[in-house]
Amino acid sequence: MSQRKSFDSECWALLEKIPTGRVTTYSAIARALNSKAYRAVGRAMNRNPAAPKVPCHRVVKSDGSLGGYAFGAKKKAALLKAEGIRLKAGKIEDFKERLYLFPFRPEKRKAKAIK
DNA sequence: TATTTGACCAAGA
DNA sequence: ATCTTGGCCAAAT
Question: Using H for helix, E for strand and C for coil, what is the string for A4-46?
């Protein structure tokens, strides 16, 4: 009963947790799923189920550049700017501060550190 | 089943 | 700073 949803579905679900005006990285999503499949995450985005509904445009690369977008990189930049993200030389300004990381929860709740 | 591909990442030159 | 190389994982072919 574990993992009855596909890996891709899990990725899309996490996207909805990204606050407006924030961005996250492919790596962060993979880590949230306790995995290193950053590439699989990106592929999942391309196979995005409902583009405007799922904020896949808020997912960027680790170095602060936007990365790709199924509707075109230009569109992605425009969407981010509309959310208040400033771009500088094709990269996100104050990337670290704009970056949103998902709560990291280890499988073993040995310590009640979270929740 | 094996191979290929991809909206990536990190390190090295 | 850019470019190359190797690695990483899941889904598609």
Answer: CCCHHHHHHHHHCCCCCCCEEEHHHHHHHCCCCCHHHHHHHHH
Beta strand A59-60 with A24-25 is: parallel
Give me the active site residues of A, please: 56
Whether A36 sits with its Cβ under 7 A from any strand C atom: the answer reads yes
CB A92 within 8 A of CB A60: yes
Q: Cα A99 to chain center, whole Å?
A: 9
> What global pTM score does this model have?
0.87
- A39 C-beta less than 7 Å away from strand C: yes
The pLDDT profile of chain A, 115 residues, written as one tens digit per residue, is 555 689 999 999 999 999 999 999 999 999 999 999 999 999 999 987 677 778 999 999 999 999 999 999 999 999 999 999 999 989 999 999 999 999 876 555 455 565 5
